[in-house]
Fold these 2 entries.
Entry 1:
Amino acid sequence: AQSVAQPEDQVNVAEGNPLTVKCTYSVSGNPYLFWYVQYPNRGLQFLLKYITGDNLVKGSYGFEAEFNKSQTSFHLKKPSALVSDSALYFCAVRDKGSSNTGKLIFGQGTTLQVKP
Amino acid sequence: DGGITQSPKYLFRKEGQNVTLSCEQNLNHDAMYWYRQDPGQGLRLIYYSQIVNDFQKGDIAEGYSVSREKKESFPLTVTSAQKNPTAFYLCASAPPGRKSTDTQYFGPGTRLTVL
């Protein structure tokens, strides 16, 4: 079964420091991986995705993610955190079952807290 | 949140009532999805539709129903058979075609509370 794990419920970082939000996956074949961010009582906003090609994917708001096939990871990173980055972050993988539903399988989410 | 709207933003339901959540998109997307979000559990798929007049059950469809009579609309009804409906409901849509690489875009959500 395909799955996504976000091992940290919460990540705390000081403003200006680099941040990493971790994601590992378990899929058959090549994964299609996504990162979304959610602010309180709002919908999810798309940040970036990995389909193929360069292992370092750049996305919105200065975020990037590194695809590592050997470690089955897709960690989200940002060189310098902002207080406004504080939010709930979701990693997701596309369900590649035979029905090709387009369904996303989500991790449980990681709360990022950036302190001034 | 793009061109996807959900209404109402907050909804209160009494025991035994059916309620309908609205989802409309003006992005010309073929596929639409309904997810349920509970604290600490991520998002779970309720129903999805890849084309007008067609839809399929997701992982937690029991107690829910949908329709897809128009391309831009995918309403979700939470029936009295849903035993624990209090949650945040998110609608999403994806571009034309059925590519696995397509990005899903989400609406702002509806928070449903059972009184």
Entry 2:
Amino acid sequence: KQEVTQIPAALSVPEGENLVLNCSFTDSAIYNLQWFRQDPGKGLTSLLLIQSSQREQTSGRLNASLDKSSGRSTLYIAASQPGDSATYLCAVIGGSQGNLIFGKGTKLSVKP
Amino acid sequence: EPEVTQTPSHQVTQMGQEVILRCVPISNHLYFYWYRQILGQKVEFLVSFYNNEISEKSEIFDDQFSVERPDGSNFTLKIRSTKLEDSAMYFCASSVWQGGDTEAFFGQGTRLTVV
């Protein structure tokens, strides 16, 4: 059974720092991996999608990498800003119907 | 930009009552999903729906839950007899699902509170 784990559970950094969020999954047979952002009490906003054949994807200050064989992904946020404060969720598609399996998330706080 | 919309944003119901949560997926998407997130816990998959039938469901999706696409645009989740433990945020999602190159889009969620 696929399990997704995210470390750390919470992270507090000063504005301007570069930071890395980690995600690991137990079964390397995934279709893709998706990173989401969730603001308190809100929905899920898709940030990046990495297909299983890809190594990384970039969008603005965000870069996500995927090492399928070791079951790991990282989300790199450059020059963090207070507006980046949110919970970041990692999810993999493991099933044939496209359903996602989520980690518990990393709660990021960027202090001005 | 197309988006998934959910209504209501918040619903309070008495234990034992039936509730229907509504979603309008993105129009050209073919796969529809319901997920839930109990406060402080992971987002959990409930059910996927394709071609007017359930394509996959989790252990959580027992007989008290049902889904329906009553017309060409709406996708609903019905909870027949709500329990206190059904209190959670319920998310609808949709995708075109063509294997790896498929992004899932989520609605803003319905917060269900059972009292």
